[in-house]
Amino acid sequence: MARPDDGPSRRGVLGGAGATALAAVAGTTLSACGGGNGESADGTVRIEMWHGQADTALKTLKDLVADFHRAHPKIRVNLGGGVIADAMLQKVTAGLASGSAPDIAYIFGSDLASVARSPKLADLTRTTGSGPVPWKQYWPAARDAVTVDGKVRALPALVDSLAVVCNKKVFKAAGVDLPEPGWSWDEYIDTARRLTDRRRNVFGTGWPGAGDEDTVWRIWPMVWDLGGDVVAEDGRRIGFAGEPGRRALEVVRALVENKSCYVDPKPGGEQMYQVFAGERLGMVTTGPWQLPDIRQAGIDYHVVPLPGFHGKSVTISGPDTWAVFDNGPARTKAARTFVGWLNQPEQDVRWAIEAGSLPLSRPTEDLPEWREHTREVPGLAVFTDALATARVRPVIPAYPKISEAAAEAVTSVLLGRSSPEKALRACADRADAALAAEM
């Protein structure tokens, strides 16, 4: 399972090289991975899965594959790929170009539309229309993240959401009450200010400042809450060039101006989380993937939904996906069978609990194992509850370029190099040009 250190940079910006190479091979008919149809004389079908996982998540996936083999003796899944999730787009792009694509690959949701340019990516719409895959019970964000131009082009591999995790010890030392659901962004800014103690090198909050997707996706909930969108309804321009984008960036500027924000210059936010664990950061906006590390560090913490501008919380989910590639009928059918099996609640609950994610669907959430896990992990329910209304970034080929432009805008404000208005104008120019290029 992807994490911040191989993680929310996971969601993101693989801008030019991967997408351009995919476009170059989009019209090419490519041979199957390794040749042949993968079916042996006794009818056993062997498929290759580039999983992108490490550590606990990989162990869990290996255990699930072993169970699948016992239940499906005529399908054999080989776990490979040799790269973590952050490098998967380049790996898959090279495989498509050379005619050696896998049968299944772990693809970030923000990259799926670019991968869908290749005719090798299978259409899974029929897989979700019947059978055991709980498509209608998936969270809306999970369904939206795998749908490209009205077709299901992958199955969700994980879902997450953003909330605010507070370090209770830092709050107590500053004499500040813990926030409650329904708080505002103005209250967030003020709370960060009150938590900050520059003499003790304590910051109220933090923000990833590497200029990647981890920098960007924290502003989209604010944009949506203010009535904007990543892309305007006509699809020709960004939907946050006016007040929604300006006010979102003003929140960033306010944190910088009151010197309450720790800006992490490295991808993945690793330093930011270390500062939080060292009790020098009061609040961090993060996802459920961070809770195991926070608990292991022995931090007494509190989880609260994101603030809002209008009395309600709006959040984002960044689902990642299992993409299936067409390497012939036998292998494609076997790959569909396996990813569909993985998505069933009985397997999904193990994946979510052991590898540290959230349930893909309501049936998984309702299982006793997940209910017990939620009772054992304080604050986990806040992330799960948020999935009912969480939104996702648009699944379009231009998104990585929009994200690059937005990342530059956020970073320039974080570092005090630009005003929100100036940064937003530059972002709109670049992002609108990227959208025009896709028309």
Structure, described:
The strands form five sheets. A five-stranded mixed beta sheet has the order 2-1-3-14-6. With 439 residues, the chain is α/β, with parallel strands linked by helices. It has helices spanning 16-25, 55-71, 88-98, 112-115, 125-129, 140-145, 168-174, 185-195, 213-216, 220-225, 243-257, 270-277, 291-296, 329-343, 345-355, 362-365, 368-376, 380-386, 399-414, 420-438, and strands at residues 45-50, 75-80, 104-108, 147-148, 151-152, 155-158, 163-167, 205-208, 229-231, 238-239, 261-264, 283-286, 301-304, 320-324. Helices cover 44% and strands 13% of the residues.
Mean pLDDT: 90
Uncertain runs:
1-21, 23-35
Please tell me what the overall shape is.
globular
Number of domains as seen in the coordinates = 2
Portion in beta strands: 5-15%
Structural class: alpha/beta
Share in helix: 40-55%
Number of helices: 20
CATH class of the largest domain reads Alpha Beta
**CATH H level, superfamily name of the largest domain:** Periplasmic binding protein-like II
What radius of gyration results from the CA coordinates?
Answer: 22 Å
What is the CATH topology classification name of the largest domain? D-Maltodextrin-Binding Protein, domain 2
Separation of the first and last Cα atoms = 34 Å
Q: Sheet bearing the most strands, described?
A: 5 strands, mixed
- Strand count: 14
CATH architecture of the largest domain: 3-Layer(aba) Sandwich
Sequence of strands across the biggest β-sheet: 2-1-3-14-6
